[in-house]
Amino acid sequence: MLAGKEKILLYGGNIWYLGEGMLGPLFAVFAERIGGNILDITWAWATYLIISGVLIFLVGKISDEKFAKDKLMMVGYGLNAVFTFGYLLISTPTHLFLVQAGLGVAAALATPTWHALYAKYEDKRHVGGTWGLADGSAELITGVAIILGGLIVTYFSFTALFLIMGIVQVIATIYQGKILRK
After folding, report:
1. Under a CB-based contact definition with an 8 Å cutoff, are residues 109 and 58 in contact?
2. If you ran DSSP here, which 8-state letter would residue 67 be given?
3. Residue 84 contacts residue 17 (beta carbons within 8 Å)
4. Is the pTM of the predicted complex or chain greater than 0.85?
């Protein structure tokens, strides 16, 4: 059974996956709408992955030595919400690259620190179940989020989608802030 900080991390992470997951496969449609072609979409997505991948190595290392994991995670969550709202300002593929780079930095701050904290607070008697719950719920929530994102864009707009995504991520950041309480 989940308790305390483990529950905060799981629920906050799931709220975040709800916000993040709404874009999913719509990313390509959005990129095309702002004048992007297949190569622009490829470069934008690769920008996110390469920046987050390189920085995750570094953040993981420095969070073990110099910085509080909970604070780094919170900065990552906050930056993620800011850069999600950044989608509202995108009008060219270059802008898309910049937002993707910012999201890569945010992911690098939030991901390894979230995992380290979740491992720290997990129920040591049910490690497989604890991680199964975290990973399974993330996939499930993201699947639901993709459906919601498609409905929002179909019946409203990408602007509405990005506003809702950003608001949900602000809520996730505020909820995760409970982890800072002693």
Report:
1. no
2. S
3. no
4. yes
Domain range for 88? 4-180
31 Cβ neighbours under 8 A, 6+ residues apart: 40, 41, 44, 93, 96
Whole-angstrom CA distances from 139 to 71, 131, 156 are 25, 12, 25
The span from the first CA to the last CA of the chain, in angstroms, equals 21
Give how many domains the chain has, as a whole number.
1
What are the pLDDT digits (tens) for 120-152?
Answer: 988 788 888 889 999 999 999 999 999 999 999
- The structure tokens listed for 129 are 């179940």
Per-residue pLDDT reduced to its tens digit, 10-48: 999 999 999 999 999 999 999 999 999 999 999 999 999
Q: How far apart are CA 146 and CA 23, in angstroms?
A: 7
DSSP 178: G
Q: Which two tokens stand for residue 149?
A: 């994102």
Residue 135 neighbours by CB distance under 10 Å: 10
What CATH number corresponds to the domain at position 154? Answer: 1.20.1250.20
Dihedral angle computed from the Cα positions of residues 106, 112, 117 and 119, in that order, rounded to the nearest 10 degrees: 150
Tokens of 125: 């008697």
Q: Note the pLDDT of residue 165.
A: 98
